[in-house]
Design brief:
single chain, alpha/beta, six-stranded parallel β-sheet, 11 helices, DNA binding
Length: about 230
């Protein structure tokens, strides 16, 4: 199957470079280009791409607002957004994941990293660079005291539907560990871990693994602590 990609960036030169890169792959094609968030949403609805490579800082409707709108549209449920940004470790990481982004990728990434990100997102997995993942977790861990007003009572109640093993896996996911790492820690197979992750996503209403990280903290399953690194 050909992965359909939508490019959203206010810099025409970058869009052209991304188009050449994506179109050079036999399993990918660019189906549209947007120069701002509003156009990205319009083109997403028109072309139903598999993946949107979304610049987060654009004039008018920015990438954050566009990501939120795409994620909230039931008709675009299969569309995955990967945020492209110059600054991976900032408030945009948390905000975009809450808005429904499937991951982050730095604009300075190698071409193969970007192509791999598209394939991972198209496959329904989350894509967070190690730097972005560490930054995201560090921000949660740096918060003092119990979860604040962002705590989602509904999601906290949904935790009751998780099995003991699913909770254990979710805690590990929130720690930024891969399926292989979790499998080693819990002494199970990677396939078993993937099954538990998928079931947890379904029960908690998470679009992907990246959303699970946010939910684990916002629901109170994992408590922010300042004594962790």
């Amino acid at each position: 199957m050909t992965i359909r990609v939508l490019l959203a960036d206010d810099q025409a030169l970058l869009r052209s470079a991304f188009r050449v890169l994506v179109d050079s792959e036999p399993d990918m094609e660019v189906v549209g280009e947007a120069s701002d968030g509003a156009e990205a949403v319009r083109l997403a609805r028109a072309h139903r791409p598999d993946v949107v490579l979304m610049d987060i800082r654009m004039p008018g409707t920015d990438g954050l607002a566009a990501t939120r709108e795409i994620s909230a549209d039931p008709a675009l449920d299969g569309v995955r957004v990967v945020i492209l940004t110059t600054f991976e470790v900032d408030d945009y990481v948390v905000q975009s994941l809450r808005a429904g982004a499937s991951g982050f990728l730095g604009k300075g990434s190698e071409p193969e990293e970007m192509l791999n990100a598209v394939r991972i997102a198209a496959g329904g997995e989350a894509l967070l660079s190690p730097q972005a993942t560490k930054g995201l977790i560090a921000r949660f861990l740096a918060q003092d005291g119990p979860p604040g007003p962002d705590l989602d009572p509904e999601r906290a109640e949904r935790l009751d539907s998780l099995t003991v093993r699913e909770r254990e896996v979710l805690v590990q996911v929130a720690g930024g560990h891969s399926n292989d790492e979790i499998a080693e820690r819990l002494e199970v197979s990677p396939l078993t871990v993937k099954t538990h992750v998928n079931r947890a996503m379904a029960k908690l209403g998470a679009r992907d693994r990246a959303q699970l990280v946010v939910i684990a903290y916002e629901s109170g399953l994992v408590r922010p602590r300042t004594d962790q690194a």
